Amino acid sequence: DMVELLKIGSEITEFPKELFYRNRFEDTRQRENQVATQIQSWFRACKVRAYLSHLHKKAIIIQKIWRGFTARARVRQMVKAAYFIMKMNFYEEMAVRIQRRWRGFFQRKYIHNFYARKSYLEGVAIKNILVRRKLDKLNEVQKRERDCRAMVKEQEGKVYQAQRLHHLMSTKQCPGVFNSPFRQAPHEMELLLRQVKYQVPTRLAPRGRVRPQGTPSPTNSRTCCSREPGEVWEQQVQCPDLMLSLQTSYTYLEEAQNQLQQQETVRVRTETHTVCTHNDTPTHKIMLQKSYHIH
Amino acid sequence: MSQRQIIQVFEQYQKSRMQFVQTVADLASRPINIEILQNAGVMSMLRPLLLDVVPSIQQTAALALGRLADHSDDLAEAVVKEDILPQLVQSLVSQNRFYKKAAAFVLRAVAKHSPELAQAVVACGGVGALVLCLEEFDPGVKEAATWALGYIARHNAMLSQSVVDAGAVPLLVLCLLEPEIALKRIAASTLSDICKHTPELAQTVVDTGAIAHLAQMILNPDAKLKRQVFSALSQISKHSVSLAEMVIEAEIFPAALASLRDQDEYVRKNVATLMREVVKHSPELSQLIINYGALSGVIDYVNDCRGNLRLPGIMMLGYVAAHSETLAMAVIISKGVPQLGLCLAEESEHHIKAATVWSIGQIGHHTPEHAKAVATAHLLPKLLEFYMDASSSEDLQAKSKKALKSILQKCTHVPGLEPLLYDAPSNILKHVVCQFSKVLPHDSKARRLFVTSGGLKKVQEIEAEPGSALQEHINAINGCFPEELVRYYTPGYSEALLERLDNYQSA
Q: How far is CA A143 from the centre of its chain?
């Protein structure tokens, strides 16, 4: 067809032009590609940057609001704590004031009481004086007692002397030693001699040597009655308990006497006595009584 | 030979034995004869006579033996060596009361010399036999047995323990209740000897209720009994607070004060000892005793007696003052300090002086008031003298130094401190100067007094190393006075002035 042929003819003539036109940018293709990439990348960056800054701004807003919230909460807490601490300090100071007053009072009243100490020391001084006085009085009383006793003893001594010296008393004929004619008045001894009644002096106990308790004085028993030389010895050997004092049963005396008498009768049958028999039992009794000295 | 003659031989022998034994016993009562008897071999002669048939010879032989052993150490040892003790102990159980008395006398005479001999007595069963004797009726036997037990218990704690273990203590307390005074005395003395060693022994005695009985006997008029009773109570109370409290609870106190004025000096001494032992333990006990007015009694006691008898009184004052300052002030008020000063002046024995110095230290070291009381009694120079004196014993020197230091640290009484400036060695001097440096800055009158009495001059003359505490105190003192005054008193000032005069050219 013609039309188609014309079209193809135009196409053929146009073809190199078209080809040239279509490939006119081949030499700058690389560069233009690069540039286009750059432009595109820059644009994309702008978009992203805008997005990021948008995000950033929103994030800042959120953070701002959040931080404000927490800070306010913290401040509220701090205020509460400070208030609490201020209250506690106040209370503590008041408590210290109370304790100070109380402790001062307590110490001054109970522990280091000045007035109590003062009155105690005064009391001690007074008590000392009282005790001294009492002790002095007691001392005096005791001294008086002692003096009294000494005087009584002295007087008794004088009376005893007077009793012994009765023979020195003055008679009508002859004035005694204590009643010398040159004196105005008789000596006190003379008066005592006249007052004191004469008494027969009792014999003092002889001071012997060490005598073991339980034996009778050996000489006495030998001399006061005549006995056979061996009799006392035999008695001592056969009943040694006889010669000791303080027997236990109160019938011992009778039993011992019976014992002796039995031995006597045994001996009478074997020997002849030189002593009169009727004197035997009484002397025996005296003997036995003498040997029962209880010291 | 007829029977009569044979029996006569025996009688003569018995008579001569009896005579021998009696003569030996009589001779043994005089100390001069004992050596001669010992050389003649009396011990071996007496030993068979102890086993004689006739009881009175036995008793006299035992008595003679006792007297010999009583006299000297070697004879007692000879008794032990010849094995006489076991015989004695055995026959102690069986024989009659006179023999028991004589045998107990021998045991006592042996035991009294030394702990070994007492141990020998214990070893042959003497303690058990003596305790059996304590159960007798006769008071003479009980007295002899108690005395023997007392001498055994006296030596040491072990022997006392053996006496207690034999069950003697309840019987001894029963002996206290007997009417005979001699028995009471000996029982009290034995209890005192038992208690003195350890607290356990004292507790054993207290557990049998001895304190109440001892307390009742305080009012007894017999002086020797009172001596022993107070000694027993003081030995009991010395061990611990609870024992002392028990003794006080028996209410001895107002009555015991009357015994402080007793005629017998040992009664007084023992009462003072009792008070000292009680007061030693705690301030409450001291206060209790002071409330009864004991201080005046003790001070009068210290005033009246001399020598060693004063010692318990002085120590009691020291112990009382040591507990607290109130009690020390009570001692000062009762005029204790002048009394102690008198004691220092009158006594010559060093241990008494040391005790007095210690007591003064205890009184003075509490507060300035106390130190002032000591200083006004002019005791500080005396203390210094004792410290410096080369002839005083070490104990005295040490105690006086300690007392002086402790009093000086509290003393602010300037007239009392001044005499010490002159003679004191440097270690005492630094305390004195330190006290001055504390007092002088505040008191103008004291400063004036210090200058006029020559104290400032003396202080300038003291040489001290720069930087030492002494120098600091001296500087502090110099700081209280104007400079011209200090310069005026420095040694060598007159020479310095003369030099200035030489160099001066008149204008």
A: 39
Residues contacting B151, CB < 8 A, separation 6+: B108, B111, B112, B118, B193
Q: Using a CB-CB distance cutoff of 8 angstroms, which residues of chain A are in contact with residue B329?
A: 117, 121
User: What's the CA gap between B377 and B455, in Å, rounded?
Assistant: 20
Q: Find out whether A175 and A181 touch, Cβ atoms under 8 Å.
A: yes
- Distance (Å, whole) CA B435 – CA B443: 13
Two tokens at B43? 């011990």
In this predicted model, what pLDDT tens digit does every residue of B456-484 receive, in sequence order?
888 888 777 777 788 888 888 888 888 88
Q: What is the pLDDT of residues B89-141, one digit of tens each?
A: 888 877 788 888 888 898 898 888 889 989 988 888 888 888 888 888 888 99
Question: Do the Cβ atoms of B106 and B100 come closer than 8 Å?
Answer: no
d(CA B271, CA B257): 8
Length, in residues, of chain B? 507
User: Shortest CB distance from A127 goes to which of B53, B57, B293?
Assistant: B293
Interface confidence, given as ipTM, is 0.79
SS3 assignment for B332-354:
HHCCHHHHHHHHHHHCCCHHHHH
Put simply, whether A53 touches B (Cβ < 8 Å) is no
Kindly give, in sequence order, each residue whose CB lies less than 8 Å from that of residue A198, ignoring residues fewer than 6 positions away.
A163, A166
B4: nearest CB among A214, A229, A243: A229
Q: Is B19's Cβ below 8 Å from some Cβ in A?
A: no
Task: Give yes or no for residue A80 having a pLDDT over 80.
Answer: yes
